[in-house]
Structure formats: C-alpha cells, structure tokens
Amino acid sequence: MTAIDLPTGTAEVLDIPDRNMPDVFSALIAERRLSRLVATIHGDLWSGNPGLRQRSRLALRKLGFTD
Questions:
Q1: Is the pTM of this model over 0.85?
Q2: By CB neighbour count within 10 A (0-12 exposed, 13-18 middle, 19+ buried), where does 13 fall?
Q3: Diameter of the chain by CA atoms?
Q4: Rounded distance, CA 18 to CA 42, Å?
Q5: Residue 1's pLDDT band (boundaries 50, 70, 90)?
Q6: Predicted pLDDT at 66
Q7: What's the Cα-to-Cα distance from 17 to each of 14, 20, 29, 32, 51, rounded to whole Å?
C-alpha cells in the first residue's frame, strides 16, 4: 500500500475524496490515530464559530459517525 497522508482535523477530513475514505479509515485504525482525530473534531463541535461547528458535523458524518 502506498503512503497515505492521514487527516488530523476537520478540514483535512472534508478534503478527502469519498473514493479514498475506506483506505484512509483503515490507515487511521492501523496507525491508532482514529480516536485522536475524532476527539479533535468533537472539540470543534464546541467552537464559537458556527461554520466550524457545521464543518465538524460534516466531517464526523464523512467518517461514518453521528455528531
């Protein structure tokens, strides 16, 4: 498998093409980085910025989670 740039935040998740999500998700799990990413996105849900809150909801959905 080729190296994958793993997301570390909301914007990076949203930039991933849908066709790449299964490989990225598997890599996040294999590298034990999924929990850290989800925690970061959850932190964005508490932002005072409504736009960031909305993007974080979209990022969680893109990862297959509810907000």
A1: yes
A2: buried
A3: 39
A4: 21
A5: very low
A6: 80
A7: 8, 5, 18, 21, 21
Tokens of 51: 């736009």
Residues 58, 67, 9, 48, CA torsion sign: positive
Whether 63 and 10 have beta carbons less than 8 Å apart is answered as: no
Residue 30: is its pLDDT beyond 80? yes
**Nearest by Cα to 37 from 15, 67, 66, 59:** 59
65, 61, 63, 57: which is closest to 28 by C-alpha? 63
For residue 16, is pLDDT > 70? yes
Residue 62 contacts residue 30 (beta carbons within 8 Å): no
